[in-house]
């Protein structure tokens, strides 16, 4: 390129530049095209104004941008064969496309960073506090470590060829927005915000390692029903028909999410990941979300079948929806002990009323005696009592002998799920 010292154009038409030191220079709107930087290249403390472009360039030696500032720095079709030093840089925008990094690199990022169709052959470390980091069709052949501070992170079709990690810089958590088309099995995240992350299109979500469920947000419910939720459920419930104000306030202006069947599948994968990590209480929240999405999916199937008058499909969907609704109402899918105990108390008290007025021959039992008999019936699964009963009383006693142990068992199951490790 004209203007570079000690340059010569080879037979291939490329400019071959040996050691280059432009430290402290102010460069405005410069474009380097078909240049091979064969020696050490220094742009330390340079000020790049406008857009600075490197197109079809090769850096076979050490290249340094330490302390440089730039409005927009663009690398297109470049190859880096040695160490790249971006320490203490301040770039408003950094774009890397169709490029290759042959050696292990450590890039200190800032501003808005877009890396697209790029391969990192060696172990890579990307650190800093960029405003946003967008990785599209990027391959980290030997894995990567991302240490970011408060950045919006997007992963589209990212290949992680070895165990990798994503975490915070100085406890300023990065916010992951999308993980589309990315195999998450090699990835471990810590001190990372996943509360607004959509997992639609992610691969091997059940292999994702999440250090803490604090990465996810809480459902907008009361303290007795608090649980961790994924962003796709928030967006789904914020839709006008199934949503309520709490979900809509949490979602803000987010676009509608995927269908409940897809969200249920994501919850199932996340539940498996927590179970593999021996975190049963954490897995319980994702199981609850999975069941909620299944119930919502069956409700939508009911409406669709009813609208098209497919009565067989409607009956199947209605049956499953009813069972799921009952399971939710009486025990919170076996995860809310207080619901099962409350249901047991209601059943026992209601049965006592029936026994008092229609369960015994004559009118010889007080409500206290009827309540005692109701409790005894609820606690005996197979053996009935010796009291004489009317036909109505017999049926109620039979129902109590079935429902009492069932509800007590659901309460114990819920307690076990919350304390098991």
Question: Descriptors for this entry?
Answer:
421 residues; alpha/beta; Helix Hairpins; nine-stranded parallel beta sheet; 8 helices; 30 strands; 26% strand
Number of strands: 30
Assembly form of the protein: single chain
Number of helices: 8
Provide the β-strand percentage band: 25-35%
Largest sheet: 9 strands, mixed
Mean pLDDT: 87
Query: What is the radius of gyration?
Result: 32 Å
What ranges have pLDDT less than 50 throughout 5 or more consecutive residues? none
Shape: elongated
Report helical residue fraction: 25-40%
For the terminal residues, how far apart are their CA atoms?
A: 65 Å
Which structural class matches the secondary elements? alpha/beta
Give a written overview of the molecule.
- The chain has helices at residues 231-237, 245-251, 260-276, 280-307, 311-331, 337-359, 367-378, 391-419, and strands at residues 7-9, 15-17, 20-21, 26-28, 31-33, 35-37, 41-42, 47-55, 58-59, 63-64, 69-76, 79-80, 84-85, 90-97, 100-101, 105-109, 112-116, 119-120, 124-128, 132-136, 139-140, 144-148, 152-156, 159-160, 164-168, 175-178, 187-189, 209-210, 217-218, 228-229.
- The protein contains eight helices and 30 strands.
- The longest helix is centred in the C-terminal third of the chain and has 29 residues, at 391-419.
- It is 34% helix and 26% strand.
- Among the domains are: 216-331, no CATH class; 337-419, Helix Hairpins (Orthogonal Bundle), CATH 1.10.287.
- The strands form five sheets. Strands 1-2-6-9-12-15-18-21-24 form a nine-stranded mixed beta sheet, with no helix packed on it. Strands 4, 5, 8, 11, 14, 17, 20, 23 and 26 form a nine-stranded parallel beta sheet that branches.
- It is elongated.
- By secondary structure, it is an alpha/beta fold.
């Amino acid at each position: 390129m004209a203007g570079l010292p000690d340059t010569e154009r080879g037979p291939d038409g490329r400019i071959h530049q040996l050691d280059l030191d432009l430290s402290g220079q102010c460069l405005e709107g410069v474009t380097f095209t078909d240049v091979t930087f064969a020696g050490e290249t220094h742009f330390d403390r340079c000020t790049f104004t406008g857009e600075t472009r490197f197109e079809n360039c090769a850096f076979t030696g050490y290249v340094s941008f330490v302390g440089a500032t730039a409005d927009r720095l663009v690398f297109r079709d470049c190859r880096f064969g040695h160490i790249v030093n971006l320490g203490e840089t301040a770039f408003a925008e950094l774009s890397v496309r169709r490029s290759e990094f042959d050696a292990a690199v450590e890039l200190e990022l800032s501003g808005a960073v877009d890396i697209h169709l790029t391969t990192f052959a060696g172990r890579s470390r990307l650190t800093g506090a960029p405003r946003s980091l967008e990785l599209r069709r990027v391959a980290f052949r030997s894995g990567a470590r991302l240490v970011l501070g408060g950045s919006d992170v997007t992963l589209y079709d990212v290949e992680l060829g070895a165990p990798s990690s994503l975490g915070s810089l100085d406890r300023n958590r990065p916010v992951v927005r999308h993980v589309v088309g990315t195999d998450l099995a090699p990835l471990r995240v810590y001190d990372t915000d996943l509360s607004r992350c959509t997992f639609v299109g992610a691969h091997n979500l059940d292999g994702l390692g999440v250090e803490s469920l604090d990465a996810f947000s809480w459902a907008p419910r009361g303290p007795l029903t608090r649980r961790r939720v994924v962003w796709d459920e928030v967006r789904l419930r914020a839709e006008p028909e199934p949503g309520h104000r709490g979900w809509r306030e949490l979602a803000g202006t987010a676009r509608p999410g995927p269908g409940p069947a897809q969200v249920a599948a994501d919850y199932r994968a996340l539940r498996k990941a927590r179970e593999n990590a021996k975190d049963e209480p954490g897995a319980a929240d994702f199981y609850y979300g999975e069941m909620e999405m299944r119930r919502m999916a069956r409700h939508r199937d009911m409406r669709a079948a009813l609208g098209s008058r497919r009565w067989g499909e409607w009956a199947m969907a209605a049956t499953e929806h009813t069972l799921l609704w009952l399971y939710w109402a009486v025990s919170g899918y076996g995860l809310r002990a207080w619901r099962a105990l409350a249901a047991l108390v209601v059943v026992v008290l209601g049965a006592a009323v029936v026994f008092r007025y229609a369960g015994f021959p004559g009118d010889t039992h007080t409500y206290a005696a009827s309540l005692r008999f109701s409790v005894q019936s609820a606690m005996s699964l197979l053996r009935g009592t010796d009291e004489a009963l009317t036909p109505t009383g017999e049926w109620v006693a039979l129902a109590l002998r079935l429902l009492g142990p069932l509800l007590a068992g659901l309460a114990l199951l819920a307690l076990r799920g919350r304390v098991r490790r």
